[in-house]
Amino acid sequence: MRFIDVDLDGTVVRARLNEKAPKTTEAIWNALPFKGQAVHAQISGEMFRMLDTTPVGELELESKVTHQWPGAIVYYPPIKEIAFCAGEARFSGGVFASTLTLLAEIEGDFGEFMKKGDSLDRSGARPIEFRRSADQTTPFRAPAYPPRKGKRLSIDFDGVKVGATLLEDLAPKTAAALAALLPIECDATNDTWGAQITRLWGPGANGSFKIDVSQAESPKYLAWPGFMYFDPAKHSLRVCYGEADLKDITGQIVATPVAAIDPLDLEKYAKKAFAQLTEGKKRIRLQLA
C-alpha cells in the first residue's frame, strides 16, 4: 500500500494508490514528484484536472472505470491526463463517457480540497503538485465527504452486516420518513437497468415503500458507490454498490440520497451483491442501530 500527497494551491490531501492498477501506479510513483496547473473540467461536470501532461510513458488501461465518485482520482492514458471527481461528474472525452484507470482514492475529509478544485472555473488555473507522502504507515482513513451526518443504521444483507448513516443533513424529510418505517425487511435483487445497483422491493405496488415525499431533496442524477437512493416518483429504494446509473425504462431517474453505507464496509456488501447475478434474490433488513 502506497500513499501520495496532492497539493492544490496549498490545500493538501493524502491518497492511496490503487493496487489493482500496478503498472500505472508504479509509473506514477517513479515519476514523483511532479507538478503542473489544475483547471476545471469543461464537459465532465464537477471535475477538475491537471492541464499538463503526466510525465510517464505509454500505459494501457487498468482497473477500468467509466463512473466516478467524490474522492476518485482517475488517469486517462490516451492523453496522459489525471483528473479528480468533486461531485456529480463523468469524465468525458467527447460525446460519450470515457473508460479510465482508477489511479487512487483520497482519504478522510477532503471537502476543502474539492471545493477549491470545483471553484477553478471561477479562479482560473492554480498550481498542483504530486509527491510521495511522508506518511506511509498510517492506515487509510475512510472517506468522509460528502459529510455523513444522521442516525446510525444497521443493514443485514443475507447475513452480511454493514453499518450506514441516514443522510439527515442532505435529505431531512426523506430520511425522517424512512426512519419512521424502520425496521424494514424485504427482498433485494440486482437492478435490471442501472447495473451495479441493489433494488429493494417494498410491500407496495411495483415494490414501492410508503415514504410520503413527492420531490427529490438534494437531487442527484449520478450514483455513487455505497449510497442508497429514493426515487420520489415511484417511491422505490436502490443501493449503488459499484458502477451504476440511476435509471429505469423511462430514462434517467432524479433521486434523493437518503443513506450511505460506511466506506470500509462497502467491499463486503458489494461481494454479496455481485453474487446475485447467479444466485438471485436475497433478504435485506434495515434498522436503527
Summarize the structure.
It is built from five helices and 19 strands. By secondary structure, the protein is α+β, with helices and mostly antiparallel strands.
List the helices and strands and how they pair.
Layout lengths: L2 E6 L2 E7 L4 H10 L2 E7 L4 E6 L13 E2 L6 E5 L4 E9 L10 E7 L4 H8 L1 H4 L2 E7 L19 E6 L2 E7 L5 H10 L2 E7 L4 E7 L25 E5 L4 E9 L2 E2 L2 E2 L3 E6 L4 H14 L2 E7 L1
Antiparallel strand pairs: 1-2, 1-9, 2-8, 3-4, 3-9, 4-7, 5-8, 6-7, 6-8, 10-11, 10-19, 11-18, 12-13, 12-19, 13-15, 14-15, 14-18, 16-17
Describe this structure in words.
This protein is of the alpha+beta class. The chain folds into 2 domains: 3-132, Beta Barrel (Cyclophilin); 152-288, Cyclophilin, CATH 2.40.100.20. The chain is 16% helix and 39% strand. It has 5 helices and 19 strands. It has helices at 22-31, 111-118, 120-123, 172-181, 266-279, and strands spanning 3-8, 11-17, 34-40, 45-50, 64-65, 72-76, 81-89, 100-106, 126-132, 152-157, 160-166, 184-190, 195-201, 227-231, 236-244, 247-248, 251-252, 256-261, 282-288. The strands form 3 sheets. Strands 1-2-8-6-7-4-3-9 form an 8-stranded antiparallel barrel. The longest helix has 14 residues, at 266-279. The two termini are 32 Å apart.
Q: How many E-type strands?
A: 19
Alpha-carbon distance between the termini?
Answer: 32 Å
Please give the radius of gyration in angstroms: 19 Å
Strand content: 35-45%
The CATH top-level class label of the largest domain:
Mainly Beta
Please give the CATH architecture of the largest domain.
Beta Barrel
Domain count, please report it.
2
Low-confidence parts: none
Tally of separate helices:
5
According to CATH, the fold-level topology of the largest domain is Cyclophilin
Structural class by secondary-structure content: alpha+beta
Major sheet characteristics: 8 strands, antiparallel, barrel
Helical fraction: 10-25%
